[in-house]
Structure formats: C-alpha cells, structure tokens
Amino acid sequence: MSMLIPKSQILSTAAILLLFSIFISSTEAAVPQFDWVQQEFLKSHNDLRSSVGVPHLQWDANLAAFSQSWANQRKQQCDYRHHSTSPYGENIFWELYRQNTATSIVQKWFGEKQFFNHATNQCNCQPERAGCECGHYLNVIWRTTTKVGCSGFVYCDDQKGAIVVCSYDPIGNVKGVNPLNPVNNMRGVAPPVLPPRQVNNGGRGRKRNVAVKPVALPANARLTSPVLPPKPVNTGNVRRGRGRKHNVAVKSPAPLKRPSSPQKSQRGRGRRNNRV
Asked: CA 22 to CA 30: how far, in whole Å?
C-alpha cells in the first residue's frame, strides 16, 4: 500500500533543499568576513611575528577575497603545491580531515624555522620538498610584508579534505636575503646586470644604451667653459682663404698700414685666418 504525500509537503521539502544548497554554495564562494576564524589567522601571524621581532600585519579584505577565490578554484584537485600566478606571497595548507585550527595551521608554517639557517639566509633543504621546506615560514615572518588575507576552510570535492590559502603583500621570500631585515641585507645581493652597450659605428659613432652615473657637484662650484690648448699652425702649403684652423690661440692683430705705393689690394684671398 503506497502512501500519498501531500503536494504542499513536497513543495516545502524542495524549497528547504534549494535553500540549503544555495547556502552551501554561497558559503564557499563568498568573500570571508573578518569573523573569529579570520581574526584567529591574523592573531596567530602577529603572535609569531612578535616572537622574532618584526612588525604586526594588517588584515586586508582584498587579499582575503583573492585567497578565497583561489581556494575555490583548487577544490577539485586540492593540491597545495599548485600556487597561483598572483603578485602576492602565498601559503597553502591542505589536510585530509579538518583537524587543525587557524592557529595550528600558522604554527605549522612557522615550524619550518628549524630548516632555515639565519646565519647564511639559506634553507637547509636542498632541494626543498614536502616535509623539508622554508617558504611558508618566510612568508609568515618577512619583515617588509604589511598585509595578510586568508580564505576560510574550503572542502575539496569527493571528500579529499580541505584547503586554506593565505596571501601576503608586499611579497617577500627573496632567496639569500635576511627575512628579519631585508632592506639592509639587500646590499649583499648582486646588482642587476645591465644590457651590453650598443655602439653605432656608422655616422658619428654615437653610443647608445650606456648607463651614466650622475655626478654630484659642490654647492659653491662654478661652471666655466673649458680652455683648450693652442694647436700648432701648419705653416706649409696653406690654402689662402680656405685654410682656417679651429681652436687656435689668436693674438690681437696689429693695426693695418696703408701701403706707401699704390698697389691693388687682394681682398678675399690674401688673408690668412687665425695665424699667430
């Protein structure tokens, strides 16, 4: 004997299921608010940063939204080794069962400190691999990073666990640089290699793409035109009217004397230019 279910009850049950599915999807896709989970992420970061003497981080909603978006994209595979191409620092945590809190996750990242040699600013894990790496630790404690934003716990498809993403800005984690004082330590980093100079041998031999360092002049410096040394005068085979030589020291000419006898003057061709 079959039992008939009232139509109103069927509609009511369908409405409840629809609302539940909407709630679940919106919970995963929504931008995480600064609730107690996010507050715990921020506090855990700052507590550990204080232990190594670096400034606290500020929570950033845009970073949290990006972290949530990337976690939602990765929930099909849930591979914590697959990072985004964002301009931010990034930590990803995955667990098969949700057994960790926000605090324990950040502490696990900070636990990579045991593999980092602060004397050489190098990771002792070569190459870095799962179970022996330093990147998560460096993102947590990098001094010049000022903002952080983390996703909520995103459950993977097919019950593959859950992942959490945290993003950091400005990005740090520069190889060979002291994470606790990266500004002063940048002096030990090799300077960028300038492109080779391109010399144009044609025409006037103009050089291009040459890095020119600015010259600092004293405050009381006076700029004057350069004094060039006198050039020797070529006394042989001077072509009159066309033999002008540049950069020759010139003496004041003697006053011209009128010839005693009437001679035809050689104007325009008899003058030797710039003779000493």
From this structure: 11
CATH number, domain 35-179: 3.40.33.10
Give all strands (DSSP E) within the chain, no chain letters.
58-59, 89-95, 116-117, 122-123, 147-150, 154-155, 162-169, 198-199, 207-208
The C-alpha atoms of residue 149 and residue 65 are separated, in whole angstroms, by 8
pLDDT, greater one: 273 or 60:
60
- If you compute the radius of gyration of the chain from its CA atoms, what whole number of angstroms results? 39
Cβ atoms within 10 Å of 198's Cβ, excluding its own: 10
Do the Cβ atoms of 154 and 162 come closer than 8 Å?
yes
* Alpha carbons 139 and 168: distance in angstroms, whole number: 7
Instruction: Provide the residue ranges of all domains of the chain, joining segments of one domain with +.
Output: 35-179
pLDDT of res. 8: 57
Share of the chain above pLDDT 90, in %: 42
**Residue 9's pLDDT is what?**
54
Residue length of the chain? 276
User: The whole model's pTM is what?
Assistant: 0.57
The per-residue pLDDT for 74 is 84
